[in-house]
Each structure stands twice: as C-alpha cells, then as structure tokens.
Design goal:
The chain has about 140 residues and is of the alpha+beta class. The protein has helices at about 90, 120-125, 140-145; strands spanning about 5, 15, 20, 35-40, 50-55, 65-70, 75-80, 95, 100-110, 130. Helices cover about 15% and strands about 35% of the residues. A hairpin with a 6-residue loop joins strand 1 and strand 2.
Length: about 140
C-alpha cells in the first residue's frame, strides 16, 4: 500500500509517487528473486511487458508483482515470469485496471553472505541495481500456450 503523507497547509493526504517494496516468493524468477527490492512508481502508465504491482483480485489486502502481458477489456492479463509458480491471470483471469497500482522502475539485489569475496562483490556490483525493462517475449509466450 502506498504511504500517505500530509500536505502542509491544507491537510489533504497525498500518495507518494515512488516507493520501495521487497519481493517475496518465486513467481517472477528469473527477473526478480525473493529478497530483491523494487523502486515502484504509483500512477505510472502501464504498457504490455511492464512489471507491475497489483492487488490480488480475490484477496485485495495482498499485493503481488507480475508482468502486464496485454490489455483485455478494462483490465490487464498478468503473468509471473516463472511459469511453474502459478498465481497469475491463468488462475484468476484479467485484473481490473483499478487493481493495477504501480509500475516497477528498478530492481536492487542486496549483497548476500556468500558474496563477500572480491570476485563475489565485483559480480554483485555489476548486477545489483538495474532497471526492470519490458520483456517483449511475453506476447510470444501467450501465443505458445
């Protein structure tokens, strides 16, 4: 859920446009791993292939991260990058537009204990922070199913 802050002067609560969230679970492997941190932008325009944060259609207190594959009617067909994890539109159908909350802009992968060697730290430094780009292979995956 996006944090609300009080706007000085008029007392209105406003939504912060950017927030950092942590990934839990394997549904977006290999793009995202359990423990990764994401910079997300609320209210950003979503395009096919974008990784998004949404409310689960059947359990709306649960936020999930999926890839917006394509528009279907007034919603989005969303998929996890890990086809074996489940929990996407193949289970619950298209997600209404109002449940898609934010677009993922970047991923930060924290340093793990086994990466403390010089080689491990150098490898981590090269890949720790990167933008999460649209995966255009999603549409090919949809046609193959």
């Amino acid at each position: 859920m996006p944090e609300l802050t009080q706007e000085p002067g008029d007392g209105r609560a406003v939504r912060r446009p950017f927030q950092v969230v942590e990934v839990t679970g394997p549904s977006m492997v290999p793009t995202l791993y359990h423990g990764d941190w994401l910079l997300v932008q609320y209210g950003a325009r979503v395009r096919p292939g974008d990784v998004v944060i949404l409310r689960h259609p059947f359990q709306q207190d649960l936020l999930v991260v999926k890839r917006a594959a394509e528009r279907r009617g007034n919603g989005w067909w969303v998929l996890g990058d890990n086809a074996y994890a489940g929990g996407d539109s193949t289970d619950y159908g298209a997600v209404p537009e109002e449940l898609v909350l934010a677009r993922v802009r970047a991923r930060y992968r924290p340093l793990k204990d086994d990466q403390r060697s010089l080689v491990g730290v150098l490898g981590w430094a090269v890949s720790a922070v990167r933008p999460v780009s649209a995966d255009r292979s999603v549409s090919r995956r949809l046609r193959a199913r």
